[in-house]
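To: structure desk
From: M.T.
Subject: fold request, one chain
Message: Could you run this one when you get a chance? Sequence is below, nothing fancy, just the single chain.
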Amino acid sequence: MDKLVSLYGILKKLRTAGVKMKDIAEASGMSPSTLSSLYTSVLPSYAALLAQGKRAEDALDEAMKQVNNISVRRLAESIDSLYACACDMEGKLLAERLGGGTLSGDIERAFYKWLPDARVYAGVYTGYSASFHSGGLKAEPYMITSVPCSDGSFNVYSRDISGNLVAGMGLFSHYQAGYMLFNERKGAQLALKMACLRLPVMSFPHYIKGIYVNHDYNRNPVARRLLLVRDGDEVPLEDFCKLKAADIPK
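Reply: Done. Structure tokens follow.
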């Protein structure tokens, strides 16, 4: 129940800062009329009754009598998502006031900032890294595309030992650092693989060194060296799917 009091305080901060109630409702997935009833009637009454010493359950029941478009059960089902949404909006608002930014906003700005230079690294590569299966190396095809997505990122692809096509997103600064993010096992769980690359100071890189981080079969985080050797320009995705990964014995 204390979450309701915290939610009321956050909503007051957002409204004072000029955030519209309909924008909060849209972000949280709640109807504007329902959220307005909570903010103007239920939450202030609930907080006042608690301050008078009433039990939380009794205070909520009495406060809910002032509205007829939401029930206690429905409020209980939606309070977590509404509270999380309000906290997120408060965090973004605070970051803007302090001259900072959110992580997603920083990444989006980086996408567009380096958009013209990132095409330098487009092409087909063979990625060499340590193999869990053979104890030797595995050679996997990678492709970095030159056509940006709607958010300014670039699609990157790889083919694993099992023959799966794994799609991801890439961010490449000019002559600085590159990042490729994949989800290796979509069916079973979210299994992210992040490749951090040191981009070479050359117009057309022949190879790129880096490290990738993911989890082994026991869900332990592991890091492996990665060497991307350029094979040529990018190809249609259909042709890329014909390339195969291979194990190289120790």
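Reply (cont.): The beta strands are 123-130, 137-148, 154-159, 165-172, 177-183, 192-198, 207-215, 221-232, 246-248. Let me know if you need anything else for the meeting.
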